[in-house]
Design brief:
The protein is 40% helix and 18% strand. The protein is an alpha/beta fold. A hairpin with a 4-residue loop joins strand 13 and strand 14.
Length: 347
């Protein structure tokens, strides 16, 4: 059986979560997120954020989180701004547009938005009231191409958004990987000061499923729960989500798992750099995008699964290798050996 480097949710969940689910299975709890596990998990998240007033809602997945947040925050004539690689643009089947909200796409080679990009969108939408109104800036950290925002970069965007009355929403599907990257200088608690809303991803970092929507802007908190229910995201057995985040937040397991995923990807990246491999972007998280010769890709594909991301030329393509919280050393070492063997055979 081939080992998969196609995504970071191929495994089930961390054993601690399975243990918690099993141990608490027969204990009766209140429904709809009022159970003691959800309450305690929210307490731990607020403590780590250093914000006891943050509103927190557990939902099942990232697309659901993005859909609920964006459709809830925007008025019918308002729109979102996203990098061209943004998940809401490319991987959500028009979920945002289906609620009547346009997404303004900004070309971005590194997956990141910059203040100048946002300003250009505002400048291009001055024909009031004949154009949609840009109102929400959507960022991903880490981005869909594995890059991360520095504290200075996020602070500049945050200040710009507040000056221009824009909401700043951070997609945190891989936030753990971003915050444990060797190039990161952001603290988890910084987010409480810099963004209006973000979500903490569990699906791609050790949970069976689940994301935690965290609302920090006081003006956006009122009646948000109605949106959760209306969009079908309020689980009767909300305990299933809450207990997973309880397990992930205890003893900083969440960040330890993300750190492991990053480390495994960096092992592969560093071995490739030894052979002068080029990359689409210089990433330091659990996603890497090496540009390889097609015959090497075919050799690797005999033993491993991964996405061929982009055709570069007739001879080369970029692939995506992504590691998870559970990627074993044996799989990483096997991949590296197979990769290096190719060059030994060519020499």
């Amino acid at each position: 059986m081939k080992f998969s480097f196609k995504n970071d949710y191929a495994e089930g969940c961390h054993p601690n979560i399975l243990k918690l689910l099993t141990e608490t299975n027969d204990i009766q709890q209140a429904g709809y997120g009022e159970d003691q596990y959800s309450v305690e998990a929210k307490h731990l998240i607020r403590k780590k954020l250093n914000d006891q007033l943050a509103d927190i809602y557990f939902v099942s997945g990232g697309t659901q989180a993005n859909l609920i947040v964006i459709s809830s925050l925007l008025k019918p004539y308002q729109c979102a701004i996203s990098a061209s690689s943004g998940h809401i643009l490319n991987n959500e089947t028009g979920a945002i547009e289906a609620t009547g909200h346009k997404i303004i796409s900004v070309d971005s080679g590194d997956g990141k938005l910059w203040v100048s990009d946002i300003q250009n969108v505002l400048d291009a939408h001055q024909n009031i009231p004949h154009q949609v109104m840009p109102k929400l800036v959507y960022l991903s950290n880490s981005t869909e191409v594995g890059t991360v925002y520095t504290k200075q970069e996020l602070t500049e965007i945050s200040n710009f958004c507040r000056k221009n009355w824009l909401y700043l929403f951070l997609d945190g599907a891989r936030l753990g990987q971003a915050l444990t990257s060797e190039k990161n200088d952001l603290e988890f608690s910084d987010l409480a000061q810099l963004v209006d809303v973000f979500y903490l991803g569990g699906t791609k970092n050790g949970a069976l499923l689940g994301e935690a929507i965290i609302i920090l802007n006081e003006n956006l908190k009122q009646d948000f729960a109605f949106n959760i229910k209306q969009k079908g995201a309020l689980l009767a057995k909300g305990r299933l989500l809450g207990i997973q985040f309880l397990g992930l937040m205890q003893d900083d397991l969440y960040f330890e798992l993300a750190k492991h995923a990053n480390l495994q990807a960096m092992k592969i990246k560093n071995s490739m750099l030894e052979n002068q491999t080029e990359f689409l972007s210089d990433t330091f998280t659990n996603q890497i995008f090496p540009v390889l010769k097609n015959d090497l890709i075919e050799k690797l594909a005999e033993k491993f699964e991964f996405y061929v991301w982009k055709k570069i030329s007739e001879e080369k393509s970029a692939i995506r290798i992504i590691t998870s919280w559970n990627t074993p050393d044996a799989a990483v070492n096997d991949f590296i050996e197979t990769f290096q063997q190719y060059f030994m055979e060519k020499s």
